[in-house]
Amino acid sequence: MSTLSxxxxxxxxxxxxxxxxxxxxxxxxxxxxxVEVITDIARYLIAGGGKRxxxxxxxxxxxxxxxxxxxxxxxxxxxxxLHTATLVHDDIIDEADTxxxxxxxxxxxxxxxxVLAGDWLYMQSFSTALEERNFRVLELLxxxxxxxxxxxxxxxxxxxxxxNEEEYFDLIFRKTACLFKVSMQLGAAITHAGEEMExxxxxxxRNLGLxxxxxDDVLDLTAAEDILGKPVASDLREGKxxxxxxxALERGTGADRExxxxxxxxxxFARVSHPEILEILHRHGSIDYAMDTACAYAEAARLTIxxxxxxxxxxxxxxxxxxxxxRDR
Length: 329
Hints:
Layout: H1 9-30, H2 36-47, H3 53-64, H4 71-94, E1 98-99, E2 102-103, H5 105-109, H6 111-130, H7 135-158, H8 165-189, H9 195-222, H10 225-228, H11 234-237, H12 243-251, H13 254-266, H14 274-283, H15 286-304, H16 312-326
Antiparallel strand pairs: 1-2
Helix pairs in contact: 1-3, 1-4, 1-16, 2-6, 3-4, 3-8, 3-16, 4-6, 4-8, 7-8, 8-9, 9-15, 9-16, 12-15, 15-16
């Protein structure tokens, strides 16, 4: 593997500051609608912030391949619009009250307006992508949207039910890692870098996205609510079995398994408390198992780009996996 040093957070921010600001401006401009409520909802969501990791990945992918065109800004806004649309729909489906420490959009505007605003953002993102006149870009985005919708439907079907690791990884690929993968692939698509390079960068995104979602799921179980920005253990209350929970179910005693099944079936901690579930998970090393798995995927992402030409963008791509696995929210 290359001896190239991993970038620092400050170096990554310096490298991408102007481009990320341009994406933010483009996202805001693209979210303007003649229908005022759409603009209001979109601006509320933009103001909520977020890590902007998906446009960051697209920028780094494009930069690693020498792209300097405006396409990277336009498509950076596209992937963030798509991500934002999924958040709107997720909050409606999950009946969420908060998002990033603020009231979720659906608690302010209601489900009907928000689902339509989410649809509008989806269509606006495709309208923006169409300006590229690049069939590969559209092909990637259409496949991505289908997989994300399929993932959401599959998850709804499995709520309250026990799933195995294979089913879990299929779900988190569709719901999260697929967008990470496509964000990286788009960087190759706009530089016409070829199928092999697109595949290589896509594999980096896939591995990183899996690591990201596993960490998200662990934080949902273990983080403090004021840091997480939403109620803790939301997944269990919604009937979702995540990796640490699946691990404990496979290794726990009969009483442990019954306790976990009760929470998943009840979709509440009325009969079994959150601390009781955490004790079971820690006793079986399930939290550590999930984090070790996330770190393995993060390292796999680094290895995937080992033979990319050395550059500041590559140094930044080597930094991202560590950021994903050490964050606290």
